[in-house]
Each structure stands twice: as C-alpha cells, then as structure tokens.
Amino acid sequence: MNPKAAKVVRRLAWAAMCGLVLAAACRTAEKGEEKAMKSPAKVVQDEDSITLFLQDKPVLQYYTALCDVPAGVNPLYRRSGFIHPLWSPEGRVLTRIQPPDHYHHYGIWNPWTMTHIEGREVDFWNLAKGQGTVRFAGLEEIVQEEQGGGFQVRQEHIDLTAQPQGRVSIEETWDIRAFPAEAEGRTVWVVDLRSGFWNVLNSPIMLDAYRYGGGIGFRATEEWTKDNCTVLTSEGRTRKDADGQRARWCDVNGSFADGGRAGIVFMSHPENREHPEPMRVWPMDANGGRGDLFVEFCPIRLKSWVLEPGIKYLLQYRLIVYDGVLKPETAETLWKAYAQP
Questions:
Q1: Nearest 10 degrees: CA dihedral of 11, 16, 21, 23?
Q2: 0.85 exceeded by the pTM?
Q3: I need a surface site. Which of 123, 124, 282, 304 has the fewest CB within 10 A?
Q4: ∠ CA(66), CA(70), CA(74), 5° rounding?
Q5: Interval 217-262: pLDDT, tens
Q6: To which H or E segment does residue 13 belong?
C-alpha cells in the first residue's frame, strides 16, 4: 500500500475503532483542571437547524424546524428531520429539497414507504397522501472530539391515520459524525450516519418490499442531469444498470456551472440488513428526459422487513464527500477502511 493510501486507512480506522458512537468526553483533565480539547469540528444550533462545520467550513445542515413549502403547494409536504445542504470541501451544494417534480424529496433522508401498521397502510415517504410523516423530536447530544465531531438527534415517524390525532409508531436516533481526511492529495469530508430505530407499538410493523424506502436516500443538486453526472458502484455498474442491483458503495459525481466537479461515495456497512444493499437509481430519462439524479440504498427493495416491538435496529452509512473526481480503487480502499478497520 502506498504512503498516501496508508494514511487514509489509518485516519479512517481511527473513526471505525471509535465506532463513531456516543463519545463520552470532549474535554480532558490536566493538573486537576479541565482543559478544552481542540477539535476541527464545530456544531452551531439556531431556531431552525443544526449546522456541522469542519475546519471552519460548513459540512452539512440538519433541519429541526418544519420546512415550509412554496405558496400554493400542499402543506402536507412540510417536514423536518433531514440533511440539506450537504457541502463539498470547496463549498459546492450537493443536495436539493422540494423539487417541483417531487416535493417530498428532502436532500438526504430515509422515510419508509409501503408500511402496514395494524392492518392499515401507512406511507411515510409520499407525504401528500396524508398517511405519515417524519419529524425532528429533540437534540440528544453535541460531541467534539480530537479528530472531528457531530451530534445526535431524535426523530419520530408519525402515523397520521391513527385516530384521533395521529400517533408515533417508530422512534429513531440519527447519530451524525464527521472528520476531515485526505484522499488523492486533497481534503475530503468523512460523514458517518448511524440510524437506530425501534417500533414503539405493541404489535409488529411490516415494511413491505418496495423500490423506495428507508436506508439512505439522496436527491442531487438541480445542476446535475444525465449530461453531466455519473454513477459507479462497487460492482462496476453505472447509472444504466445499477437500479435494483446490490452494492457495497456507490460513487455519484457531477459537474457545476463554475467548471468544477464534486461527488459523494455512499458506503453501506457490512452489518446492515441485506448487505451488499440493493439500490434505487433513477434512469437516464428521469423527469421528462432531464435525467435528474436520485440514488438510495434501500434495505427493503427485495425483501420485506418486520419490525418487532422492543427491538432496536441499526443501519450505518458513511459518506466520503469530495471535490474533483476519485478513482474507483480509492473508493474501494476507503470502503475497506470503513468495513474492515
């Protein structure tokens, strides 16, 4: 392994070793006094959102407030509990929310679609049905560590069909951590998202097999179309044949009006259900031929999933956010550092 690749592996192995789970301490004791630990990460909260910074640059914003919709649009499309924007290290915005073709698309998010609760169909994805939604429910913790930092939040999956005023059916935590690393001689953001969720009812919840739902969904910037963006999976599949296929990682990349390029390598953890995970990738002619990009790791794409009461489930994903392009062999090295530290 060359020195640069070895350095990447060491940095990523540190993150995996720590598990990027709740960190107990962000301060250390020195001579009986607490001394603030220096961290490249900073978390800023306001009345609408939580923003994570690395090296004083914004990495991602998580919405805590209900995001309003444009005038004349069905208010059922309002929701919270999603990531937008996701920025590249050079500041390019990679996500999009509320596109007119799919107002329920929200940057990076993960609602379930074909769900059955006590014999009733509940769709948490297609918000205009009025059957379900997902909302931010509280900030659990802000963490600063020597290598990076992040935060943990609670989310509620609300069954709007339950009488008389709806009911929380699934509770979830999002644990989001990020740290800077180096790949191919440039700085990249490493973002880990751990989704822990559990059925709070006294009866099972059925997540039907469907091409959308759960996992981690990504609606790309409006600047990307079939003419200027690419998809490549760990199995060598592209946008033409990746849909419905399994992958360990998926690299999405596109160009911008400023002449630059940026991308994200989405990684599925080996402990995830159905790993390597099946994917949903929009075809080249999506949205009337424009070819807008949507990509998702979808753990219920091929097989239904029953959430039993009292059991906590876990899905883990890593995003390598970068500018320019990354070689496939680099993406493979980075995934191995995540999966096999």
A1: -40
A2: yes
A3: 304
A4: 75
A5: 999 999 999 999 999 999 999 999 999 999 999 999 999 999 999 9
A6: helix 3-18
